[in-house]
Amino acid sequence: MAFQPVRLPEFGQPVWNSSFDHDKIGDVFKFWNKGELDSFLIDITKDIVRFKDDDGSPLVEKIKDTANQTAISSFNFGVSVTLIGEVVYSRTLSSLKDKCVCASKILPESKNKKFEGDKDLFVKQLGQALSYASKLISYAQGFMLMHEATKDHNWDLNII
């Protein structure tokens, strides 16, 4: 089986393997957006993962990510945005698809091909983890970075 990464745009979003197709991932984000995860980024993510290119294939699979300006700004302002940094690193790894496909022809296949458990429970628990951990960290780190940037750019933001 060839390596098939799914890249999602929101900071800290999980990446799933072949257990979920793009439409199902969109359904999950739609479900999450009806509860405590309701946000602009969760809402647009459901549409982004479902969007098809002119040839009918998921456009998100064709996006190759490079370094993220937010992570670079965090270094410049001396603010730790670890969650965003990890997303940049994950995107960098997912951009190595050609190398992963080549390696998949040499290395033995994983014995855990698909998730076999209760997918509804998994989605619910993953949503709770996203709500209580990565969303909190992402917003806190983002506000810290914007607070420092206000000093350099003379922005009038009253965020902290």
Automatic annotation (TrEMBL):
A GO MF label: phosphogluconate dehydrogenase (decarboxylating) activity
Which SMART domains does the entry link to?
6PGD (SM01350)
Q: In which pathway does it act?
A: Carbohydrate degradation; pentose phosphate pathway; D-ribulose 5-phosphate from D-glucose 6-phosphate (oxidative stage): step 3/3
The EC number(s) attached to this protein equal 1.1.1.44
Report the superkingdom from the record: Eukaryota
According to the entry, every stretch annotated as the 6-phosphogluconate dehydrogenase C-terminal domain falls at: 20-160
Tell me which Pfam families the record gives.
Answer: 6PGD
* GO annotation terms (biological process): D-gluconate metabolic process; pentose-phosphate shunt
Q: Which UniProt keywords apply?
A: Gluconate utilization, Oxidoreductase, Pentose shunt
Q: Which InterPro entries match?
A: 6-PGluconate_DH-like_C_sf, 6PGD_dom2, 6PGDH_C, Pgluconate_DH
Q: Which family does it belong to?
A: Belongs to the 6-phosphogluconate dehydrogenase family.
Record-given protein name: phosphogluconate dehydrogenase (NADP(+)-dependent, decarboxylating)
**Organism of this sequence:** Rhizophagus irregularis (strain DAOM 181602 / DAOM 197198 / MUCL 43194)
